[in-house]
Structures are given as C-alpha cells and as structure tokens.
Amino acid sequence: MGEIMQTLGRSMQVITITHLPQIASKGQAHYLVYKEDTAEATVTGIRQLNEEERVREVARMLSGATLTEASLANARELLKFC
Q1: Stretch 30-42: mean pLDDT, rounded?
Q2: C-alpha to C-alpha distance for 46 and 74, rounded to whole angstroms
Q3: How far is residue 82's CA from residue 28's CA, in Å, rounded to a whole number?
Q4: Are 63 and 75 in contact, with CB atoms under 8 Å apart?
Q5: In sequence order, what DSSP letters do the residues of 42-76 get, joined into one string?
Q6: Cβ distance 5 to 26 under 8 Å?
Q7: What's the whole-number mean pLDDT along residues 58-82?
Q8: Domain spans of the chain?
Q9: Average pLDDT over residues 18-29
Q10: Which terminus of the chain, N or C, has fewer Cβ atoms within 10 Å?
Q11: Mean pLDDT, the chain, integer
Q12: Weakest-pLDDT range from 2-6, 60-64, 76-80
C-alpha cells in the first residue's frame, strides 16, 4: 500500500494519516500532529519534522516510547527507500 501511495504521489497530492511506520516512511514530508493540555484548554497542533525528527518518529512507531538502536536503524532503513 505504501508503494502504491508513493507512486500516486508522483502525479498528485496524497495526504495520509497513519500509525504504520511502513506507510509513514514513504512520504516526501512528515508532519507530527500533537496535543497539549493546559489548565484552560486542550490545543492540537501540527508541525513538519526535519530529517532526524522523522527518523525518531518512525522509530517510535516501530518500538513505542522507548527508542532502541535497533528501532532507529530500522527507521533509517525504511526512510532510505523513499
């Protein structure tokens, strides 16, 4: 599915929301949607990730909150093919 979406992205804009690292690693740009809670309100934001943040986010998708050398290496490998 990730490769199909990557092919589509060559000729049109494709926006995907996913928790799957195999899909997330295929994009040309990676945005992180986050939520911040304060005493007054909950605010949702979005920001584009740089290359190292992108590696760490894909690694987090692979291994959860605790990043390992294996998950970081796997994330770099996934991102290398996009």
Answers
A1: 94
A2: 25
A3: 7
A4: no
A5: EEEEEEE--HHHHHHHHHHHHH-SS--HHHHHHHH
A6: yes
A7: 93
A8: 2-80
A9: 91
A10: N
A11: 92
A12: 2-6
